[in-house]
Amino acid sequence: MVNYGAAFKLPFTNWRRLGALFLLVLVAGLPSILLQMFKKDAISLVLTSGWAGLIAFYLAFFLVSMFLYMAISGYSIRIARHAAHGKNALPPFEKFLSLFAAGFKYSVALLIYSLPLVLLLVLSVFLLYTSFRLFGILLLVIAMPFAVLWMFFIMYSGPMLMAHFAYENRFAAFFELGRILKYSFTMAYFVPWIVALGYSIALFIPYFVIVMIVALISYANPSSAAANVLMSVLSGLYTVILTPTVMNLYGQAYHDVKAASPAAAPAKAKGHAKSKSL
Q: Residues 74, 241: contact at Cβ < 8 Å?
């Protein structure tokens, strides 16, 4: 069964690794803060170096942020992998490039799952401005319920998709849709998913209130660096408290679903027989 107490305590069980995650989140968000704080310098850069210099400047900041956010996503997957293997602990940051690789694979998989909906919407909108307007309207009508189903799949089965990849550690695992849907529609997954959702909402409410107050202060004084830094710190705190708990819940749920699946019994028996022979 899912150990909810262990999940809620997880962010505070290893302050060094939690601090490392917090710093990683802060550094990942630093480029966007710097760009907001130095807009005037960006205009000066256009005047001195032209648009090519500005584009190169923004592209460099974007690539650094994307690399770090991919690594954060990869670390989240590593948390789920630990839990899926029965380890309720914050994993180490070793093999940092593998974190980026895992996060990148997850992003690519989500993009692939999104392509049918995106192509359907693009095609329908394109046809609205041609002589095939009625066909475009028909496609748009079809796209709406499809979009609802896609959103439900990503919100509900998306964590199971991630947990399955985390456990199997294979890119192809993202597309074992039959198994993912089978695992998703079980009580062993549904209850932890509801708890994770409720915890996310409960944590988001005070975070949102504080962020709105800081945003108002920042709007009143756009040149204030303190407000931007505080916003980044608040976002980092929210991320490092929420992410380990939620990912651990998903991993634990996958561990339970996997253990309860019919295929798990022969594997357990085989492992038990092997251990006896040794």
A: no
